[in-house]
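Much of our argument rests on the idea that a fold can be written as discrete symbols. This step matters because it turns folding into a mapping between discrete strings. The record that follows shows the chain in one-letter code together with its fold in token form.
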Amino acid sequence: MAEPIRKPRDFAAPTPQNTPASASSVKPPPRPSQPMASISEDNALGALANNPALLSMIQGRLGTLVGRSSGYIESLPSYVRDRLAGLKGLRLKNAEIEADFQRELLELEKKYFKLQEPLYARRANIINGEEDPSADEIEAGKAAFEEEEELFGEGSDEESEDEEESPEADEAKSAKRSGSAETADDACDDDDEETMVGVPNFWLTAFRNVPGLADTLSDRDDEVLRYLTDVRLKYLDKPGFALEFYFADNEFFTNKMLTKTYYYQDEVGITGDFVYDHAEGDEINWTSPEVNVTIKVEKRKQRNKHTKATRTIEKTIPVQSFFEFFNPPQPPSLEEEESGEYSDFLQEQLESDFDLGELIKEKIIPRAIDWFTGKALDYEGLRGGDDAEEFDEDEEFDEDEHEDDTTDGTGGAEKPAECKQQ
């Protein structure tokens, strides 16, 4: 814990002992026209707010005091400081045990992941229509769907439990249990289901249901992610992991697989955890700039003032896209880190990129079916409800402007994306 901020040692208030000899000749300052107590804190804060340079200087000075030693430890007797050194030695031994624990835990994760890999491979085959689930797997899944419906409900408060359901509603519920989120009117009949291979748009639908990940997807990304056939995890020989995205043949890029690799430092940190080092992503071989969803191509015509000839120039502008995931931000160099010459924005980018990789590794890959059906939102407590959004008492609301708006019972919050078969 940081030592308390103390006044410098050379600070001393004027006293009879340190008052300058010429003090008697110094005229006292004029008395204020109003009592000092009447000067409010608001006036002082207002003065600082009107002087950004002064405020910045004060903040900078205070920032230099944070973490500085108060001199207390140095003032202790040597035999007490030796005890502190001994405590630090114990802490280092403890850190060694924590490091061994993290290494063994990583090996344990790898061991059990090997047992899960055949299940992930079978999942991919079912999604892509190369295999069908067994009767036992279907029965176990149906039982799990029914338990989730009892636990979380059907997701509609308008439907009465005692109301007798129509055949159309039964058909819609069956479609939902099988992984489809279509309504009764849009439910596929038996003939249509026979022509549907595997589970179309499985990963696109799952991604759209994940808060945080869905925010990175654009409408143009959707067209590309329809070709995503599988997402896999691979552990590295050294600390770290790789995320592998497999794609069917498409008109957007020639890559069959795109990989994003996260590397950790070889040695664990002082807390005993592995320390993130950097990430690397594959280069995407787009077939043309027009289909590159990470940029927007603008064409403009220019006319020569002298010859009157015209020419067309193209300008590429970066746009938000999920596929920027494969072009990760790079951490600052050692010199930049020591000098602090890198922006907070870069730090936020690095943290967001790492968090997204961990989200895919820890939650999306193991529980892809739950994100596809949207039930993961219930397990994670992320589905909006009546209390999903609270309004500030001071916030103004124009009733005339919103008088025609309708609510959906979620308190005005936008509902998570529903699972849909495209």
Notes: Residues 93-138+199-285+321-380 form a domain with the Arylsulfatase, C-terminal domain fold (CATH 3.30.1120.90). Strands lie at 228-235, 240-247, 257-264, 276-281, 295-303, 310-318. Confidence is low (pLDDT under 50) at residues 1-39, 155-165, 172-191, 385-422.
